[in-house]
Design a protein that fits this description.
mainly beta
């Protein structure tokens, strides 16, 4: 029954250096193989863990994070991460998570709060894209079961709210759509500004039930246009309505 404790304080670390490189080419379809062997969680059930981790500067998936604080405890197959705190892109995030492996099928719960993170530099670093600007806040609660992507999608449940204030959708000008479709969607003149839709608030509330995400009333508000949208996304069938 291993009983482990650690208290780590790092000045900086780049986790991308330790991750496998992403393949530039999509791999060929895998041949049919034997059913996946069940994971043996008994070693984790025996583990007793009490750990604390502080990182002054952290890079992961090209995102830059500062002052990360992670506390993790485990006993009898239940792992608790509480708290999880970090600063990034002029804002901060906090959360907690629980992993339960007392049974053959692991259960997970995640709670995350995001406060005033600048969306544009985050997207440029992580996705190398520039399509959304603004100050982002979010409150997300998720629960899931399983240890493979297919099962997690089928059992994913939760709810949340994503809100972006004082921002813009870059690359499309919705306000000018009625006046000139080409200028709304087309490329800007060389040297000229890209089309954009400035807004005061973009709100996206959502619920998830067994892998089906429902958006009951997303809204975008700007001085020139109002947009409301409702719909569902089936993560299992990969369909959008």
């Amino acid at each position: 029954r291993p009983n482990l404790a650690f208290d780590m304080n790092l000045d900086q670390i780049n986790l991308d250096r330790y991750l496998p490189p992403k393949s530039e080419q999509q791999s060929a379809p895998a041949e049919k193989t034997a059913p996946k062997k069940k994971t043996d969680y008994e070693p984790l059930r025996r583990l007793i863990l009490d750990g604390a981790l502080k990182i002054a500067k952290l890079t992961v998936n090209k995102a830059h994070i500062e002052d990360a604080v992670i506390q993790i405890n485990a006993k009898d197959g239940i792992f608790n991460i509480d708290p999880l705190k970090l600063n990034m892109y002029q804002g901060n995030a906090a959360g907690k998570a629980v992993l339960n492996v007392t049974k053959d099928t692991p259960l997970s719960n995640v709670n995350l709060q995001v406060n005033k993170i600048q969306m544009s530099p985050l997207l440029k670093d992580v996705l190398e894209k520039d399509f959304l600007e603004g100050v982002t806040s979010a409150d997300i609660n998720l629960a899931m079961a399983g240890d493979d992507p297919e099962k997690i999608r089928k059992t994913l449940n939760g709810k949340g709210q994503l809100q972006v204030n004082d921002g813009a959708i870059v690359g499309i000008d919705l306000a000018s759509m009625a006046r000139n479709v080409q200028s709304a969607f087309g490329a800007a003149k060389p040297g000229g500004p890209r089309p954009r839709t400035d807004f005061t608030e973009l709100a996206i509330p959502f619920t998830i039930e067994n892998g089906i995400t429902n958006t009951p009333g997303s809204s975008l508000k700007s001085p020139f246009i109002r947009i409301q949208a409702v719909g569902t996304t089936d993560l299992v069938k990969e369909t959008l309505d």
